[in-house]
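User: Once you have settled down, look closely at the record that follows, taking as long as you need, and be ready to discuss the fold:
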Amino acid sequence: MGRVWSCAGLRWGADGPALVWGGGRVSPLVRGGRIAFGVAEDGVRTCVGARGHACPRATAVPGRGTGARCEECARLERAHSVAADTVADDPRPYHVYLAWFGAGLVKVGITGVERGSARLLEQGAVTFSWLGRGPLMASRRAEELLRAALRVPDRIPYADKREMRGVLSGTGAGGVERVAEIAELHARAGLLDGWPESLERMPFEPVDHTEVFGLTGLPPAEGVVSELAAGCAVSGELLAAAGPDLHLATGRGVVVLDTRLMPGWELTSAGGDDRPAFPVRESRRAASGVQDGLF
């Protein structure tokens, strides 16, 4: 087997998306560039460990999982997690936000002020606006208030986000519609009773990521890589990157690769070889018969 690399996943920064590799090496992702890699015939996916420490048992983990951790390491990773509500005394300020992923797909969430909009890029939010800023627990209470009063969820499945990207109408009328949708929710949120006093209200100032992600004119995906597998590979032109997903133009049509499937594998170059493609499942749109499927 030739040279191998271990991938730590996709990271969004000021210069856009990049793949991060073991040892700290970073590969910026540029639309129109080529993505090509594979897994060796005898490859096995192993747990990536927790909180900067290797898994003590190097436990094998499923190829379909997006966490790349065994049960024990997953518990350790979440032991001091804001998302898991295990850090109630975090002194840092937090933003409360509304994020739009598609018509009717709006969520509320919180993120550390110091992170700026990175969390929204990581989630694949097409448009978002801040709602408020304040201490962690006040931000959590505001998040719960919106969930209960406006029936806005705090989670949206990635599969739902992917299905919407290929039908977005870019920065024209579609942009107006999505801004109007979160503007209406932002206004309703401002009228609610029960906002924590320590939470600073923030005006409606929408931020759109359509061009950042490359969604204008993006063709609907025909399929989604369901898992990486030993002896297989992927090769395609990068059309768009949104959240953890890469939309690739391949010989089998547009395929979405969730980069959260990559950690835990030893990856090799796949330029010009004849390895079979990673397993791909039809997108829900293709399976419904909206257009001819390729799989």
Summary: Confidence is low (pLDDT under 50) at residues 290-295.
